[in-house]
Amino acid sequence: MEPAFGEVNQLGGVFVNGRPLPNAIRLRIVELAQLGIRPCDISRQLRVSHGCVSKILARYNETGSILPGAIGGSKPRVTTPTVVKHIRTYKQRDPGIFAWEIRDRLLADGVCDKFNLPSVSSISRILRNKIGNLAQQSQYESGKQAPHPPPQPSLPYNHLYSYPASKMPNPPGMPTLPGHMAMHRIWPSSHSVTDILGIRSITEQQISDSPSFSSAKLEEWSAINRSNFPPASSSLVNGMDKAHLEPHEAKYTQTPSGLPTVNSYVTAPSIPPYHPPTQVSPYMGYSATTSAYVTGPTWQPASGNALSPHSCDLAAPLAFKSWVASRDAMHPVAASAL
DNA sequence: CTCGTAACGGTTGAT
DNA sequence: CTATCAACCGTTACG
Predict the structure, then answer these.
(1) Residue A19 approaches strand B within 7 Å at CB
(2) N or C: which end of chain A has fewer CB atoms below 10 A?
(3) In this protein, which residues make up the domain named Paired (predicted)?
(4) How far apart are CA A248 and CA A279, in angstroms?
(5) Footprint of strand C on the protein (CB under 7 A)
(6) Strand B proximal to A77 Cβ, under 7 A
(7) CB A281 within 8 A of CB A263
(8) What is the pLDDT of residues A197-246, one digit of tens each?
């Protein structure tokens, strides 16, 4: 099922086969690239294969988004938005209508031809999943939307980080969290990285909030919805605006226990009071590191712990820079790590 | 040494 | 309810 722990790549990095890298890492990749770090260095430093770095960077350059593509599912083949709309209409007009009747009508009304006519089971599913209780509350909606229904009635392309409703802290209308995580090309010099980290921490924070969900939930980002058409659309650029970051950054100075938001993504959700900074999670200390960093004054900085600022974690921009400067020095460490 | 990319084994989710 | 299938994933290896 959910491999709590991933596999280890040639660079010593942890990954989960088939699954996207955590946003935190994706973010860091882009972030580092923007600081002028070469991809090969980013690869080594974050221990992510260069192929992946290359891909993420390329995608980012092209789309402005750091997010992975929508995984799984398939594009609607027959149940296009138009079809769904019609089904909805039929259902509204006659709530007792049977799926097979709808099917007949779709054909009769020319909405579908025999090649793209949804199966009865598909229609049932649509009624269940997309139409649902709509029969009652339909009024305003049916009233009118746009002449052009959005490609996907359900969700916007990338509404990222929409965590499961269960834990969605924010109101329905407007996701507090960015619809999708993309960034501006330029970062405010001084705290750009911190900001990013801040972002990470907020995203992650949500997860660590509810331990039981932790790892599983993270997946949501990508789960988002796969029902989007051409990705490229309009809105995928930026989504993460700093506005969210700065405040949060301050806010999440640290997790309740004083324990950094360590148990992260794929990490065993159940890693309890274990602790810190050394590599705990498959994706290594970075989360810890970061939060440590974000934590600021309250939390003891890297000082004593096993986590070497130079080893592999990007503790802070500065640490990073020094790392860059002295990466020879760091090699041995990396080597030993292996 | 870098970096782009195809092959590969994997997961996911709509049909 | 299960299987299929096409989308995406990151790593690896090659060029």
Answers:
(1) yes
(2) N
(3) 4-130
(4) 25
(5) A 9-11, 13, 15, 17-21, 26, 48-52, 55-56, 59, 68-75, 121, 222, 231
(6) yes
(7) yes
(8) 333 333 433 333 333 333 333 334 434 444 444 433 333 334 343 333 33
